[in-house]
Amino acid sequence: MLYQQIASNKRKTVVVVFGFLMLVALIGAAIGYAFAGSATMGVIFALVLGFVYMFVMLGQSTDVVMNMNNAREITDPSQAPELWHIVEDMALVGKVPMPRVFIIDDPSPNAFATGSDPQHSAVAATTGLLARLNREEIEGVMAHEVSHIRNYDIRLQTTALALAAVVSMLANFGMNSMFWGGARRRNDREEGNGILDIIMLVLALLAVILGPIAASMAQMALSRNREYLADASAVELTRNPLGLINALEKISTSAPMQAADPSSASMYIADPFKGKTWAHLFDTHPPIKERIKRLEKM
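The structure assignment produced for this chain is given below.
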């Protein structure tokens, strides 16, 4: 079951990342056509911007994400011995280097992993997680986070975060240019191109407006798929699904976090804001009940 789930998630991941790149290219084409008269130039500009931003983010992702969530680093086992040794044990079992360890001062139990690869990874746990969960449950949560590291989900999430940010930047650029008359200046230069030109400009406007929404939906879908896989991988590390099941139940009944950064929400083991939407399209995580149901079958 585990390996079937891994294969299924890898296929879905390829589709989602490809979709992200196509979205970046589409927004770039729309802006290039509307404001410079060249969709090709817009695509090239958008993809170059996307790849540059993505590589910058991958190089500094740990420090950036930890600062965004007000996390403080633990550099010595004596500062949080139980957490340190659990992370050390799970990293050993998972056959990945020991990640950097951070703590977030927040009474709500939660945790996440980040980084560009297993050699440059980090995990963070809230003070609420350390206070409310027992050792078996913390092991389940840290095994889940180490699984994200082992499965390279951390790189994937950082890539998705960077591409979503690029889509937002391009959309903002397009909207600002439109506000200041960029499209009108193009129309002035090419007056007489006919109704086809008007249709293309309307489509460009729709792409700029709807692009960030589509990017958010793709990022959330990516996160949901990876959570199921990390749950299954965590059980492979601990051989004890009950620890993670009990941890998820406690986390699901806790109050929302106070210190989490909204753009990092998809990285946490459970939605830090406990948000719900009309069609679950913007949920950052799969339902806890569904995750527990899958764990109980293992």
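Interim note for the steering committee: The mean pLDDT is 82. The longest strand covers residues 121-126.
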